[in-house]
Design a protein that fits this description.
Blueprint (H helix, E strand, L loop, with lengths): L2 H18 L3 E2 L8 E7 L4 E8 L5 E3 L3 E3 L1 H10 L7 H4 L8 E2 L11 H5 L1 H8 L4 H16 L1 H8 L3 H13 L14 H12 L5 H12 L8 H13 L6
Antiparallel strand pairs: 1-2, 2-3, 3-4, 3-5, 5-6
Length: about 240
């Protein structure tokens, strides 16, 4: 079943389902393979995206959540080698955290976890029955695990708790949870400061062990700007 047939069946379903949930389609996505939908929430913005690949490959991202208090500072500081013009004009939005821990069957980010070959084997949609299975899995994720993720991490201290869990596990990054590359550490420090975190200095040391590497020197002037912003930032939680 090729991509055109898959799209003809699945995309109207996605559009109709998400419309009932208050989501709008993003206009700046590739209209052949990739589609994005977002919704303004009580804490920021939710986003979910869909990939319709050749030979029936299909998947969708899990929830990405945008926390404005974090991303406004990221935009003020900047990100190296990234044109942020469309983000300043709000044609695009940066996101803060992402769900990667669900047991969801068709995540599009399986590409980065297992490689293209495994992703295609895991997510091929070859029959009408496969399409119906995908629909069932998507709705179940959206209404259960996804909804739980969005609700839990709408509260910033819960985000901080997850950062502590990751740091205490000995992992060298927050990439399973925080969006971005090296700038993920920028986000973590902003979150820590906003929460009045008594482990802020510990997180700062943890972040600087990565950010200040010579191999990441492009980030050094941006980190200097971030520290200036952090010095001015008052906690909103204690």
């Amino acid at each position: 079943m090729d991509r055109k047939i898959v799209k003809k069946d699945m995309l109207p379903f996605v559009e109709s389902f998400l419309d009932t949930k208050g989501y709008s389609q993003l206009e700046n996505y590739d209209n052949m393979k990739h589609f994005g939908f977002s919704k303004i929430s009580n804490f920021g913005r939710n986003r979910i995206t869909f990939t319709f690949g050749d030979s029936g490959f299909c998947g969708n991202s899990l929830f990405h959540l945008r926390i404005p208090q974090v991303e406004d500072i990221i935009l003020k500081v900047g990100i190296p080698n990234m044109n942020l013009t469309s983000y300043y004009t709000k044609e695009n939005f940066l996101y803060t955290i992402k769900d990667t821990n669900s047991q969801y069957k068709y995540p599009s980010d399986i590409l980065s976890k297992q490689g293209m070959d495994n992703a295609r084997k895991a997510n091929l949609i070859l029959t009408k029955a496969d399409i119906e299975d995908w629909k069932e899995c998507f709705v179940d994720y959206f209404e259960n695990a996804g909804a739980e993720f969005a609700t839990r991490y709408a509260y910033l201290p819960n985000v901080l708790e997850k950062l502590d869990e990751i740091m205490d596990s000995g992992k060298k990054s927050y990439k399973e949870f925080i969006c971005g590359r090296t700038d993920q550490f920028f986000r973590a420090l902003i979150i820590s400061k906003l929460c009045g975190d008594d482990r802020f200095e510990e997180k700062k040391e943890y972040a600087e062990s990565i950010i200040l590497m010579e191999s990441r020197k492009d980030y050094h002037p941006y980190y200097k700007l971030l520290k200036e912003e952090l010095d001015k930032l008052d906690p909103i939680y204690n």
